[in-house]
Design a protein that fits this description.
With 146 residues, the protein is an alpha/beta fold. It is 27% helix and 21% strand. Helix 3 packs parallel to helix 4. The termini are far apart. The model has no long low-confidence stretch (mean pLDDT 91).
C-alpha cells in the first residue's frame, strides 16, 4: 500500500494557505512563500496585514484601501536572497499590479504559482513582458475563485 507523495508545488501552496491564516485583513486573507527553484529552501514568507507595531486590524473597511501591506510585499521585504538567486513564488491569490512589480524587482523570479483569481488580473501582462511564468494551481478542489 503506497500513498502518493505530494508535489513540492502542493506543499508550498498549502504553506502559503497556512500563512494566510495569520492575516488580520477582514476582506481577504493572502499568504506568500518564496523558495529556491530546486524547492530546497524557503527564502521568505509573508501574509497581508498592518505594518509591524501598528494595530492588528485594517485601517478602513473600504475594499482596496484597508491599509494592509500585501502578502507579496511582506514576503519581498523579508527576502534577503541576492537578485542572482533564482526564485519561485507561491501565493494564494493572483498578485495585483503593484505586487507583480515588487516580485519583478526581487530579481530572478522564474515562476509565480497562485491558487485563486483576483478581481484584477492586469499583472499578467507585466509578468509576460519580463518573462515570468504565471501558473494557476489546482489543489483538490481548492482552486475555486473568490
Amino acid at each position: 500500500m503506497s500513498s502518493a507523495r505530494p508535489s513540492f508545488e502542493t506543499i508550498y501552496m498549502k504553506l502559503a494557505m497556512t500563512m494566510a491564516l495569520r492575516s488580520t485583513c477582514k476582506r481577504l486573507q493572502v499568504g506568500t512563500i518564496i523558495t529556491t527553484v530546486d524547492f530546497r529552501k524557503v527564502l521568505a514568507v509573508g501574509y497581508n496585514g498592518n505594518a509591524s507595531g501598528l494595530p492588528n486590524q485594517c485601517d478602513t473597511q473600504i475594499p482596496g484601501q484597508c491599509g494592509c501591506l500585501h502578502s507579496e510585499e511582506n514576503a519581498a521585504i523579508n527576502c534577503d536572497s541576492p537578485r542572482n538567486v533564482e526564485k519561485l513564488v507561491f501565493v494564494t491569490h493572483h498578485p495585483c499590479v503593484y505586487c507583480a512589480k515588487r516580485l519583478i524587482n526581487l530579481g530572478n523570479v522564474k515562476k509565480v504559482h497562485y491558487l485563486h483569481d483576483y478581481r484584477n488580473s492586469s499583472a499578467r501582462e507585466l509578468f509576460e513582458y519580463v518573462g515570468i511564468e504565471l501558473k494557476k494551481i489546482e489543489l483538490d478542489g481548492l482552486s475555486a475563485d473568490v
